[in-house]
Queue: 2 jobs
Job 1
Amino acid sequence: MNLEIFMQGFIPLALAHFIALLSPGADFFILVSTTSKEGKTSGILTASGIAFANAIYIILALFGIMLILNNPLIFISIKILGAIYLLYISYHLITSKKRELFNKNKITLKKNLLKSFIKGFLSAILNPKNSIFYFTMFSISLNDNIPFNYQILYAIWMFLAVLIWDIFIVILINAKQNREFIQKYSNKIEKISGIILAMLACIIIFNSL
């Protein structure tokens, strides 16, 4: 493996992807709701459903980008549009209002595990923003110097990052003191994430012109 070429695509992709994971979205609130109401096991199954739905979009985005990678005009246009989409996300993060994240009722331990998995899967697969997001992720990080086997490793990384991060969130939410911390600082995290995404988007646009 040529580490320099691998990192050339991996660093911007992993950074933008992780910052986006830090920002509460629809999947985050599904995790919060399920874990708060039904406990850790249901939360982990919901996280797994979300991750596998994301895996489908990751695969579709990877092969979609491969089809246009050899057409510079289309590829650069999509890269710029992807950066604009990141600016759109960053605007909403920066202007977001503080809100109540957690259900204050006691946990009711429901153990319908298949239902929890399906809930997470449907939440992610029916969100059209996920397909746009992953298409954007690959467009900003790939070029014709990066071999396909490296791109497969990027895809596996993103799937594992979603799965591990969401399970980590579930474990955090399960402890009351952590909920208080998340509630207190989540809005600040959103705003900081928005600023970093905006900076990445501007760099991408500058390098594409």
Note: The radius of gyration is 18 Å.
Job 2
Amino acid sequence: MVSSSHEAMHRIFQDYPGLFSRVSEVLGIDFSPPTSFAVLPTDLTEARPLERRVDTLLRLETENDDPLLLAVEAQGKKDPDKPASWAYYASYLLTKYRLQPMLLVVCQDRATAEWAARPVRFGPRQWPLLTLRPLVAGPHNMPVLTDPAEVREDLALATLSAITHATDPDIGAILKTMTTVLQDTPAALANPIIELVAQGLGKLPAAEIWRKLVAVDLSFYKSPLSQELREQGREQGRQEGRQEGRVEGQTQRAAEDVLEVLEVRGLDIPEAVRARILGCDDPDTLRRWHRRAVITPSAEGIFTDE
């Protein structure tokens, strides 16, 4: 089953074909910006029973270079069979369209990205017949964008960057910058971005951060997904509230148990001691005080060594 992350990593190039020239610029490769584009069929099936499908396939026209066929593959993990499939795609596309093919692989983890970027040679060791060398975009080479000005300059690149950095320690800051910019972005532009980021984060922990940010910062957007995200955020908040309420109740009862032991033993409980016990919200500390309350000669004795 294809994941939402997989879909978002390649579908963004269908929605924003010009993104490839920006990605190639970031990666240090000089491709002219496209002047036009066409989304082509992704079915590369042969007449015989062999079916192969590339994730996204675009024909890019430029002013300075010949037309280019861009195949975009979203790769979630290392797969030793993929290089042969990618080589097949390239040969098939060249044969069918008589245009030079280019393969861009998009990854969300560095290990997979570095694996995908390795040149793979096909043929005997003495004389390789062909070399596969995909262009790879991933967390190892996509910029970390936490400056609103940079995000505002190119929302498509910022979206891809957020998706590829889904497991980055700074993902919270990255996503917060996105919502900051989207707050004053027209809904027609913002809503597709909201959905792409949500799909790209999939079931990773960063998805929860995005849901909460969308619910708080982008509450005025009305797309189906943003509505769903807000409702999920509200439900998450309700669950956390219930959980916090349960924890609060448990610590309150634990504090009262400590006082009850001291009272049953007939010990004098100064107001400062009572206030400190009732003000404690750490279950481990309360359990320790409860054990000491059974043997301490005075109420203050439960704080020994603290």
Note: The mean pLDDT is 85.
